[in-house]
Amino acid sequence: MTAYAPVLIVVVPLTAAALVPLAALVSGRLARAVALLAITAAAAAALAALVAVLEHGAMRHRFGGWPPPWGIEYVVDPLSGLMALLVAGFGVLVAVYAGPAVATAPRLLNGAFHAMYLLLLSGLLGMVLTGDLFNLYVFLEISSLAVYALIALGSERATIASFRYLLLGTVAGSFYLLGVGYLYALTGTLNMADLTVRLAPLAGSPGVTVGVALIVVGLAIKMALFPLHGWLPDAYAFAPTPVTGLIAAVMTKVSAYVLFRVLFFVLHPAATTPDALALLGWAAAAATVAGSVMALAQADVKRMLAYSSVGQMGCIVMGFALGTPLAVTGALLHILNHAVMKGCLFLAAGGVQFRTGAARVPEYDGAASRAPLSVAAFTIAACSLVGLPPTAGFFSKWYLLVASVEQGMWPFTLALVASSLLSAVYLFRVVQRAYFGRAPQETGRARAGAAELPLAMLVPVALLAAAVVVLGLLNQAVVTQVIASALPALEAR
Amino acid sequence: MTGTWVAWLHYWLTGGLLLVGLYGMLAAPHLVRKLMGMNIMQTSIIIFFLGLAAKTDATLPIVPTDDPAPAAAAYINPLPHALMLTAIVVGVSTSGVALALILRIHRHFGTLDERDLLSKLRE
User: Fold this and answer.
1) What is the mean pLDDT of each run of 10 residues along chain B (123 residues)?
2) CATH number of the structural domain spanning residue B106
3) Quick one: closest CA in A to B98, which residue?
4) CB proximity A71 to B under 8 Å
5) How far apart are CA B74 and CA B59, in angstroms?
6) Structural domains of chain B, count
7) Does B68 map to a domain?
8) A22 touches chain B (CB under 8 A)
9) pTM to 2 decimals?
10) CA distance between the termini of chain A
11) Which of B48, B101, B121 minimises the CB distance to A152?
12) A251, A371, A439, B105: least CB-packed within 10 angstroms?
């Protein structure tokens, strides 16, 4: 079975996405059961594949038996295996978390939600595993189309946010496709491993530069790199909370991972595009500061977290731009850490809102007395985002910080420190209100008595909060076991 | 030299088409017009890819069984066509989702002018 894991990870959710609407004709519960089963199976396959890969080395699957570069191949190496596990694992957690929210929905809507959710996941998993640039475009569009529909499930305002995201997302996809077209015209291949070989003698030619620039701009829009982040705050703020939790945690990260693949595996950055990389670094540094400053200005908690994501994506790209093994280690670790902590923040904020109705910062006054567990999870994740040891965020930021000092890039160092300090301000003002603010008289839709949250919502939040600390303590294992295996590619050529 | 720029002409045209599409998406206030700009932009990329496949003095990419060593120069490259078939499907789906969103926006807000919609979004 393990030999087929690379395919099953993607095909199981994709097939289930087609079955779920049919199941919804019978009952909403059946649809949900099918969806949960499929996502859990994908996560299990991802785990099995990662374990096998760590033991025996990379796994490749050729579709239809066609050998690359003619056929499409899926590649699971330690890094893509870990990303697949991250995406599928988050898929399970958020699907469970969404339970209470969808329980009351009509069965057909229930079916549509789960079908879109599965399509989004299979798109993201496909992007992570594919070894073919055009196949990646198709999965990019599958995940994008699903996410437009999911965002639009929010309020009526969400449809406007979703439409604007659709326009920008299509521009992003088209730029990526055009860039792939340039590389294809130059080399006649779409397979990533084959492109690496064939692009080497073409390094520095204008065609490669234009193609790469188009791909980078396209991916930068998808990952909301400042100043191309325009779609993100509205989309995150108006989408239903479970959807925001999933897309904030993994969707932009998958694009960042693809950027890493293209920059460091398909191309050799030092030889092909040093200027572009330097430019990317400055944009990232600007993003780090600007995202944090804009987060500071928000009163809506979800919107604040959304701008914070813009800043944190800057940190990740900054690591890629520095390009040293230490910096790239930090960036890859930050992809993982930020996914866990931002997912935890959004889901915990959703929990607070579910319990107390608080959505804006001033409304968090005294929230800790009514939603103690959610606020505790929020606080742990906030510590990690600021970068306090021993939480996960400290370690990835430390790698980035040391790398920027080593390279003598003081502006980057300053940007990192500034973003940490600013995030302390915008996150801890929420925590402070929650713990020390005076609670208003029972207003809003506060629920008296009973448990703080339904178990289905509480467990994912608690697991993520625990993961923030565990990842921090185990960061050395992640770096040596998984990330280190991706680094030789930096030095080999 | 005249041959060179004529050979490049269709790249300039597709590039121009791409810019027309992007300009429409940026400048038009009406959401349907933005969608049309988006479609024009996508079409320009499809034509760009098809241009890559074109060859003179080449035939359909069906290799006869009695040709033991087929020469690549004798056959048109079918791969860009296959890729663009997929891209067209993607474009159709995107337009479908976009039109569904436009319908919902129009039903609720009664307008499709972006300036009005943005002011309602910020309320």
Assistant:
1) 66 91 91 93 91 80 78 82 92 94 89 83 73
2) 1.10.287.3510
3) A163
4) no
5) 6
6) 1
7) no
8) no
9) 0.91
10) 35
11) B101
12) A439
